[in-house]
Amino acid sequence: MYAPNTFTEECFTIPEKYNVNGYAVASKPLVLSDGTIVNDLRVVFKDGQLTDWSASSGTDAMNLIFENENSKYLGEVSVVSSNNPIFRSGRTYYNTLLDEKAACHLAFGNSYTEDNLPAGAAADDQANQSKIHVDFMIGTADTTVTAILNDGSETVIFRDGDWAF
């Protein structure tokens, strides 16, 4: 079965499981599958693992999510231009499948390796595997993304909410 990623605004990748360092602040509420709304989510990662987090609501539900194996590692990093119809609508849909098409986002948990590795390639231990995959939005109209290249140099690939090239 093929399940396309509806709308084509999203460019996503699998992060290296043990090499995520930094912090992020959610730009939209996270609506969980049970309807719980998590507001003001803030996360900190060190060596790939979530080391600190807070939210103004939905903390009990998030604690349950984090009980799942490997749920404190990222499975997705996605860059989405603010120059798209869903972002420009100015709405928060309170539906992750729509809201993630309007903003850069990260996902706790599983990496979708089956559709994102070259033909014949197998996932290694750098692709996180988990029973869950929970997207949360971090993008805004002023988001900048800087890539660190293999040689250690940096290049801006996303500036002020849009592709830099």
Briefly summarize what is shown.
This protein has 165 residues and is mainly beta.
Textual characterization of the structure:
This protein is mainly β and 165 residues long. Helices cover 9% and strands 32% of the residues. The protein has one domain (10-163). The strands form 4 sheets. It has a 4-stranded antiparallel beta sheet with strand order 1-7-8-9, with no helix packed on it. Strands 2-5-6 form a 3-stranded antiparallel beta sheet, with no helix packed on it.
- Spatial separation of the terminal alpha carbons: 34 Å
- Low-pLDDT residue intervals, each spanning 5 or more residues: none
Query: Given the helix and strand composition, which structural class is it?
Result: mainly beta
What's the Cα radius of gyration? 16 Å
Broad shape:
globular
Number of strands: 12
How much helical structure, as a percent, in the residues?
under 10%
Structural descriptors:
165 residues, mainly beta, 4-stranded antiparallel sheet, 3-stranded antiparallel sheet, 12 strands, 32% strand
